[in-house]
Amino acid sequence: MKKESVLAGFKAFLMRGNVVDLAVAVVIGAAFTNIVNSVVKGIISPVVGAVGTQSLDGYKSCLKAPCGIGANGQPTGVEILWGSVLNAALTFVITAAVVYFLMVLPMAKYLARQEARRKAREGVQELVEITELEVLKEIRDELVAQRAGGGSGPVGSRDGF
Predict the structure, then answer these.
(1) Could you give the CA distance from residue 64 to residue 109 in angstroms, rounded to a whole number?
(2) pLDDT tens column, 105-155
(3) Where would I find the beta strands (DSSP E) of the chain?
(4) 0.70 cut: is pTM over it?
(5) Of 24, 36, 42, whose CA–CA distance to 104 is shortest?
(6) Is residue 122 left, alpha or beta, with left meaning phi > 0 and alpha meaning psi from -120 to 50?
(7) What 3-state DSSP class applies to 62?
(8) CA atoms of 59 and 89, how far apart (whole Å)
(9) Backbone dihedral region for residue 22 (phi beyond 0: left; psi -120 to 50: alpha; all else: beta)
(10) Residues 138, 132: Cα–Cα separation, whole Å
């Protein structure tokens, strides 16, 4: 009996919307990562390489001399590998720019257009409702005025025929 309730709870946990949405987001994110990496490696990096250098990983500074490889094959000195840090930072900025300009910005514009269309439809419907409400109020006021006036109008007159 206890096993069924644990399994039922686990099934309910898996079927909740946020878990399923998260799983879909991870799969889509992994697929999108390949697209972004391809754009960065295939288009952006060659353009940056044409302007500057193709790899920044080789840039370093020696903090404690002598830097290099000793006779025993071990590195000597203390090297600061600032080129690899700069390369990682540039890769991050370029990747963020690709994601923003190719996905986020167009999607935001699309959603804004959809929202504007929805609001325009609601505005027209609200205008029609307000207009109908105004007409009904005018009819009510006219009927009240006719009743109070003792049958001065065609609707309120009972002695007209």
Answers:
(1) 53
(2) 998 899 999 988 888 887 777 666 677 778 888 899 999 999 987 655 555
(3) 61-69, 75-80
(4) no
(5) 36
(6) alpha
(7) strand
(8) 14
(9) alpha
(10) 10
For residue 158, the 8-state DSSP code is S
d(CA 57, CA 49): 13
- Residues facing residue 47 across a β-bridge: none
Strand partners, 64: 78
Distance from C-alpha of 131 to C-alpha of 128, rounded to nearest angstrom: 5
Query: Is the peptide bond prior to 66 cis by the omega test (within 30 degrees of 0)?
Result: yes
The tokens of 148 are what? 């109070």
Sign of CA dihedral 148, 149, 151, 154: negative
